[in-house]
């Protein structure tokens, strides 16, 4: 039986969101990943195209129409803060956010149709802080949340797990699924830190109670701390949930060289976390992994960490 490939998806429009000079969430993040991958033989083994998916009909599965309208109205306008001072939209920002979601939905198709065993989406702007009705924390559309809804609606998947290892808590994603027992949100993050949410007693509400798991970690946490928390807290919970699909909010800003976090991970730490994800998917016999780029603001550390993540996805038997 031949092994299904791992895929790497990106879109040139993701380079066209250009926050003001000096902003950490800049197009160079993505160009660094693309050039690192280009010069690595790994790229020859990756599937890198997928039939495009129009994200437009799916945006309202997560976002408020009035917010989407406000976001669309920024198209072609001068760059301006949207909802929060650190989050900009204008020019082609909407096109970039739309392309990010389009890639994630195409990734869902590849995994759910059995054409790839896992997919990494190198996209920006990131998404996990984007709220139902507001931009936040450099995020305009909540890409991972829209991908979860798309998978559920298009492939009749009842249980989706989202593992978020970005150094920041994914407050937007948590909020979106807080009362929903069909999408399990699990997060490892620096705490206390931006955006302030993600305490361990935030566990969901109503029918969603017990389907949100926050594992806050103190600044200075190491690979060992991350792996222990994943093995002892995250994996048992997600194994019991038995997801049919695993989505990863893959931020790489817990790297020790990242300017926005105070954690001590190195490139190979992300490879080891990735191996644990593959192990989970095998244990519960889920369809596969769709991993979506979130943060990571030292462009070189980011590029190397993404390569380590991809190599781990590719080298795992899956
Ligand atoms: Zn982050």
Give the topology:
Blueprint: E1 6-10, H1 27-38, H2 65-72, E2 80-82, E3 84-89, H3 93-112, E4 118-122, H4 143-155, E5 160-164, H5 171-177, E6 183-190, E7 212-217, H6 223-241, E8 245-250, H7 267-284, E9 289-293, H8 299-315
Parallel strand pairs: 1-4, 4-9, 5-6, 5-8, 6-7, 8-9
Antiparallel strand pairs: 2-3
The protein binds zinc ion.
Residues 166-168, 251, 253, 294-295 line the site of zinc ion.
GO molecular function, one term: histone deacetylase activity
Family: Belongs to the histone deacetylase family.
Domain Histone deacetylase: 23-313
Defining key terms:
Arginase, Chain A; single chain; binds zinc ion; 7-stranded parallel β-sheet; 318 residues; two-stranded antiparallel ribbon; alpha/beta
Account of the protein in words:
The chain has 318 residues and is α/β, with parallel strands linked by helices. It has a single domain (6-315), classed as 3-Layer(aba) Sandwich (Arginase, Chain A), CATH 3.40.800.20. It has 8 helices and 9 strands. The chain has helices at residues 27-38, 65-72, 93-112, 143-155, 171-177, 223-241, 267-284, 299-315; strands at residues 6-10, 80-82, 84-89, 118-122, 160-164, 183-190, 212-217, 245-250, 289-293. Helix 1 packs across helix 8 (299-315), helix 3 (93-112) packs parallel to helix 4 (143-155) and helix 6 (223-241) packs parallel to helix 7. The mean pLDDT is 97. Zinc ion binds at residues 166-168, 251, 253, 294-295. GO terms for molecular function: histone deacetylase activity. It comes from Candidatus Methylacidithermus pantelleriae. InterPro entries: HDACs, His_deacetylse_dom, His_deacetylse_dom_sf, Ureohydrolase_dom_sf.
């Amino acid at each position: 039986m031949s092994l299904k490939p791992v895929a790497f998806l990106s879109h040139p429009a993701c380079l066209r969101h250009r926050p003001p000079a000096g902003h950490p969430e800049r197009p160079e993040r993505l160009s660094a990943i693309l050039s690192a991958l280009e010069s690595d033989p790994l790229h020859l083994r990756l599937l890198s195209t997928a039939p495009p998916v129009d994200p437009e009909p799916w945006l309202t599965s997560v976002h408020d129409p009035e917010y989407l309208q406000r976001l669309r109205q920024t198209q072609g306008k001068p760059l301006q803060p949207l909802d929060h001072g650190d989050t900009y939209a204008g020019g082609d920002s909407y096109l970039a956010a739309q392309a990010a979601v389009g890639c994630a939905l195409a990734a869902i198709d590849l995994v759910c149709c059995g054409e790839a065993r896992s997919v990494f989406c190198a996209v920006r702007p990131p998404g996990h802080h984007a709220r139902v009705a507001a931009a936040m924390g450099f995020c305009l559309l909540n890409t991972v949340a829209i991908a979860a809804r798309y998978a559920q609606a298009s492939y009749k998947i009842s249980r989706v797990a989202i593992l978020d290892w970005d150094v920041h808590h994914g407050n937007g994603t948590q909020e979106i699924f807080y009362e929903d027992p069909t999408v399990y949100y699990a997060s490892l993050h620096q705490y206390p830190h931006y955006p302030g949410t993600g305490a361990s007693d935030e566990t969901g509400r109503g029918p969603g109670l017990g389907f949100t798991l926050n594992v806050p970690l103190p600044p200075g946490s190491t690979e060992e701390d991350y792996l222990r928390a994943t093995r002892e807290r995250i994996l048992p919970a997600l194994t019991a949930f038995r997801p049919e699909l695993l989505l990863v909010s893959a931020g790489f800003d817990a790297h020790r060289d990242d300017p926005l976090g105070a954690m001590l991970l190195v490139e190979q730490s992300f490879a080891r976390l990735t191996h644990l994800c593959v192990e989970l998917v095998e244990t519960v016999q889920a369809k596969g992994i769709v991993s979506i780029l979130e943060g990571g603001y030292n462009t070189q550390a980011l590029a190397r960490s993404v390569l380590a993540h991809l190599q781990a996805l590719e080298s795992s038997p899956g």
